C-alpha cells in the first residue's frame, strides 16, 4: 500500500530529477545562471511535504468507499507525483516572495534567497546596491519556480481520466494561486494599514489573512486538487473542504505561535522573528485587545522593530502569555482540529484515507517546527 513516507520519497526524487533537468537548461543559456539552480535545490531539499501528502490523500479519499486496495496504477502514480511535486514548487516560490516582503534573513536554517543573491553581489564586487540586486534576483527566482511548478502541474493534469476531471483540477489549481497571491497582499496590507483601520475588526482581518494566505493553500486546496484529479463528486469535495479549511486555520495558528515562541534550532528561523517583522497575526490581535492604552502603545512601538533584542522579545512573549492571548490561540487550535475531525468522520470517503488524514491533522497542528 502507498503510505505517506513512500510518497514523500517519490516526491523528493521527482523534485530532484526535475531540478537537475532544468539546471542543464540554465547552464546552456548562461553559466551565470547556476545560482538559480543551486538556490532552488537548497530551498526544496527541506520541508515535510505536507501539501503533497494532502494532495495524495485527497486523491485516495475518493476511491470507492471502504476500499483499501484502490491505489494508483503506474501511470496514475506518475501523474500524481508530478502534481504533488508541482505543489511543492509552488510553495517554494511563495516562500521566496514571502521572505522578500517580510525582509526575512533566513529560511529553513539557511540565508533567504534574496540574502544569498545579496551576498553573491558583494563577493563579486559588482556595481550598484547589493540589496536591490538581491531582491530583484529573488523575485525572478520565485517567478521561475512558479513557472516550473506550472510545468509539472500542467503535465500531471493532462493525465486526468476525463475532460471534466481535467477542467475541475485545473480550476482548483487556478483558484489556489489566485487566493494565495491575494492573501499575501492582505497580509502586507495589515502590516502597513493596521493603525488606520477599525480596531474592532482587527481579529476578523487577521483571521481573513490566515484563511487566504495559508489555510486554503496549505490544506484545503491540495485536498481539492488531488480529489478533483480522481473525479470527486460535489458531495466529496464539499466534505473535504469542510475538513480542510478549519484544519488549515489551525495549521497557520500553530505556525504563528511558533513564529513567536518557537525554538530557532528547530524552526530554522530566529526566535521571535515574527515580532521583529511586525506580523499582525491573530495572536497579536488578541494580545492588543486585552491591553490598556499605555501598555498597547508600548506593545505597538516594539512590534515590528527589526532591532528588537532578546530581552524585548521575552517581554513581548510574556505579555502574550499574561494577557491570556497565547492560551486562547491554543484553544482555537484545539477547537478547529475537533471541528475538522468531526467533518472527516462524516465525510463520504474511504476509511484508509480517513485514518491517514486524521493522523496528518494531528501532525501539522502539534508540530514544533
From TrEMBL:
Keywords: Magnesium, Metal-binding, Transferase. It holds the Pfam family polyprenyl_synt. Gene3D superfamilies: Farnesyl Diphosphate Synthase. It comes from the Bacteria. Its cofactor is Mg(2+). Belongs to the FPP/GGPP synthase family. This is Polyprenyl synthetase family protein.
Amino acid at each position: 500500500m502507498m503510505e505517506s513516507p513512500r510518497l514523500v520519497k517519490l516526491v523528493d526524487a521527482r523534485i530532484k530529477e526535475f531540478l537537475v533537468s532544468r539546471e542543464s537548461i540554465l547552464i546552456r543559456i548562461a553559466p551565470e545562471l547556476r545560482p538559480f539552480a543551486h538556490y532552488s535545490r537548497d530551498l526544496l531539499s527541506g520541508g515535510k511535504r505536507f501539501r503533497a501528502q494532502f494532495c495524495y490523500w485527497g486523491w485516495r479519499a475518493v476511491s470507492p468507499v471502504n476500499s483499501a486496495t484502490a491505489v494508483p496504477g503506474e501511470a496514475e502514480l506518475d501523474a500524481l507525483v508530478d502534481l504533488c511535486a508541482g505543489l511543492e514548487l509552488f510553495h517554494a516560490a511563495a516562500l521566496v516572495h514571502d521572505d522578500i516582503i517580510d525582509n526575512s534573513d533566513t529560511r529553513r536554517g539557511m540565508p533567504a534567497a534574496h540574502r544569498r543573491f545579496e551576498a553573491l553581489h558583494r563577493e563579486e564586487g559588482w556595481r550598484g546596491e547589493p540589496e536591490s540586486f538581491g531582491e530583484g534576483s529573488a523575485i525572478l527566482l520565485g517567478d521561475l519556480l512558479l513557472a516550473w511548478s506550472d510545468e509539472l502541474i500542467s503535465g500531471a493534469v493532462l493525465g486526468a481520466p476525463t475532460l471534466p476531471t481535467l477542467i475541475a483540477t485545473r480550476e482548483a489549481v487556478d483558484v489556489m494561486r489566485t487566493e494565495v497571491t491575494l492573501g499575501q497582499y492582505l497580509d502586507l496590507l495589515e502590516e502597513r494599514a493596521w493603525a488606520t483601520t477599525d480596531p474592532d475588526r482587527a481579529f476578523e482581518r487577521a483571521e481573513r489573512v490566515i484563511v487566504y494566505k495559508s489555510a486554503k493553500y496549505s490544506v484545503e486546496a491540495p485536498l481539492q486538487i488531488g480529489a478533483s484529479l480522481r473525479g470527486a463528486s460535489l458531495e466529496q469535495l464539499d466534505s473535504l473542504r469542510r475538513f480542510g479549511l478549519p484544519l488549515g486555520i489551525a495549521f497557520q495558528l500553530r505556525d504563528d505561535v511558533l513564529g513567536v515562541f518557537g525554538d530557532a534550532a528547530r524552526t530554522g528561523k530566529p526566535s521571535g522573528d515574527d515580532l521583529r517583522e511586525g506580523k499582525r497575526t491573530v495572536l497579536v490581535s488578541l494580545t492588543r485587545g486585552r491591553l490598556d492604552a499605555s501598555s498597547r502603545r508600548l506593545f505597538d512601538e516594539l512590534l515590528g522593530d527589526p532591532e528588537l533584542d532578546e530581552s524585548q522579545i521575552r517581554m513581548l512573549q510574556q505579555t502574550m502569555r499574561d494577557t491570556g492571548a497565547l492560551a486562547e490561540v491554543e484553544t482555537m487550535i484545539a477547537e478547529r482540529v475537533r471541528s475538522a475531525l468531526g467533518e472527516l468522520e462524516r465525510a463520504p470517503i474511504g476509511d484508509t484515507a480517513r485514518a491517514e488524514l486524521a493522523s496528518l491533522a494531528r501532525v501539522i497542528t502539534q508540530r514544533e517546527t
